[in-house]
Amino acid sequence: MDRQREREYDFTEVEERWKKEWVATNPWAAPDFPTGPKRYLVTMFPYPSGDLHMGHVEVFSIHDTIARYSRMQGFEVLNPIGWDAFGLPAENAAIKRNINPKTWTYDNIAKHRASMERLGISFDWDRVFLTCEPTFYRWNQWLFLQLYERGLAYRKAAAANWCPKDKTVLANEQVIAGRCELCDTPVVKKWLTQWFFKITDYADRLLDDMEILTGWTERIKNLQRNWIGRSYGAEVNFSIEGRVEPIRVYTTRPDTLWGATFFVVAPEHPLADELIAGTGKESELEAFREQVGRLTEIDRTSTEREKKGMFTGKHVINPVTGEPIPVWLADYVLMDYGTGAIMAVPAHDQRDFEFARSYDLPVKVVIQPPNETLDGDTMTEAYAGEGSMVNSGEFDGTSTDVSVEKVTQWLEAQNLGSAATNFRLRDWLISRQRYWGTPIPIVYCDECGEVPVPDDQLPVELPEQVDFTPQDEGVAPLATAHEWVNVACPRCGKPAKRETDTMDTFVDSSWYYHRYLDVHNESAPFDPEKDRAWMPVDQYTGGGEHAVLHLIYTRFIQKFLMDIGMTEDPEPFPALLNQGVITMGGKRMSKSRGNVVEPVEAFERYGADALRLYMLFSGPPEAPFDWPDEGVRSIGRVTAPWLQRVWRLCEDVADMPVAPDDATRGPAELALRKFLHRTIKVATRDYENFSFNTIVARLQELVNEAYRYRAVGGNNRGILLEVVESLLLLLAPMTPYLTEEEWRRLGHDESIHDQSWPEYDPTLAAEDEVTL
RNA sequence: GCCGGGAUGGAGAAAUCUGGUAAACUCGAUGGUCUCAAACACCAUUGCCUGAAAGGGCUUGCGGGUUCGAAUCCCGCUCCCGGCACCA
Predict the structure, then answer these.
(1) 10 Å Cβ neighbour count for A751?
(2) pLDDT digit string, tens, across residues A115-135
(3) Which of A31, A283, A378, A672 is deepest in the core (most CB within 10 A)?
(4) What is the spatial distance between Cα A243 and Cα A653, in angstroms, rounded to a whole number?
């Protein structure tokens, strides 16, 4: 069109001007009580470990597009933001720079906020909170005490995951393939007394309520199912000479009970001490345990490693055959799953088989496959498939599809055992031997023992005068704050000491989305009335890497809050959108690798709109995106030129004089209108499906059509105005700045972001009939 | 081993739910207009084979099936990605 391009869209000037206005007026503030259809939209609040990175830009672009589209569709929208400001990475970064974690955190939050404003994200800035402020974390302490009162927060000694580098324990979910989630150091087991939240009480509900999660991908639900790991089976009693209580084992195959030829107890099990006592094998047990304890989780769980065991010298009675079978200790049996003891059926379990061959224990076949005859002496691997029972008394001939149920019923009738369910999920270990977190509101008194801090003494504030560097193993930095540690017992008034561990920061994020709804409340974490008005979250967006961390903890705490009457929905986030990971050269962007594209550089060279649109156009939101090698420059090839093209079209139309025949329609005008209305129809459908890349494609076609119309001499201002105004409305959720500027340029006094979504004429939008 | 997801041009992708012209849109590439020149912008070509062209033939990981018609639905494979894994 205008080859000379005397003028160009000055995105820097336009974006700065509107940003200033939006920051000054907070136009997207939401009321506490919506009066019409509502949408509560939450994006996972960021962790301030530096400035925003492209992953944030991606998810905020997606999220903000949904928010702006929802408003134009007539919903009342609440779109808040806050910061997940406590935690280990900030603390480590601060220690490295020899400054207080608070200073470091607040600096980063200021940077984050400036970048969010520059990106034009339509947050309600009146509802901001930081989890590291006492006004927030005192409600973490409240939550802890609520759980404590109901027996769902408890302290126990257990073999905990210990990161030797970060010098703290970690929850199971924070150990990725045997390594620390944060620093990748191999984790070791350490026997410590720690605080736990009893998430296992909610295991069934966490699984069963997944039916409600219709807006979650199979991928994430599958991860959670695997993580929770429910299995059905039976517990069976084995009696032992000289002991009143029988020993229980859990098995998923009670139908193989007749083939149990030995019995194994986890080496750490207290029962091991009992069995060994008086046999003269105490030192051997000690050595064996030490050998097992030295292994990292990676070594211990390696399938290649040969299983090691130790005979106790004791026997238990197989309850169905009446025969004594030897009791062993072995490193392949886990202390914290089932009962910590198993019946070993080497013929039909591969692990038991390998152990039996190593230690020359008998292998007895009790399931015969249909087409061959197994022999325990000659078989080379366990047979775990289907077949019919043999060597099993009255059950001989029973087939596998009914045998488990029949045997379980019989065991119950004989009083030998009962049906049982087990989970892979472990209780959530929330103690951390670190400084930058919520103090656990417990006091230890010599007289009264463990005493919860009464509500009127909350918050237990995090002291500032502390040596916050990690201390020797198992000692928290807060132990160095002597004045803070030593308090009067809340119950008897005698000298006592505070708990010095802090809470896992996943406690903060497990309920934060409620706090937005009542951010200034000083007497409760939130008002259930206000909560009811906005909950549940209609759309949650964020990274899929939290599948078994945040996303499982938060579902648990939501259910708990429902149980105590604070909130009404069993699930906090019925719909979840996980954006794809952004990489460059197939690797995660990182400064040390030198493959980082900085959002700030993109703002300066191409503007926020072009960056947002680039993120949305790159592919479906959930798809991973490998950023081209040329870096920020690729925005200058893809979306920045197209926005200039949109701008020129708008300017062209804005400059056209009003003519008397603007309302007349020839064939070319009709064709363009039909194209426009089809575009509105399809783009609207695509917005509903979050298919942003195809919306952009469709709008590009529309712009191409308009240019073509102009190129062949089309000059009907009426039709062009309809096209351009609709185009701006359809584009407004994705590129808020340019659309606002040009909307005003076309003579409107009100913000484009307050307009209603354009409607299409169904007659015009109908596809032309195709004759087959 | 168990569970889940996926495979379409040189690249990102679209069409898959709801079977109907496969490859929209964009990048890259090639040629052109403009320019002293370059950049920008604009125009054209661009799945593969064949052909001077018109045209013809083939094509959605592989093999079958259903159907007038299959990228799409069904059955059986292969490969890739992700998760879990000594969980009894």
Answers:
(1) 17
(2) 999 999 999 999 999 999 999
(3) A672
(4) 93
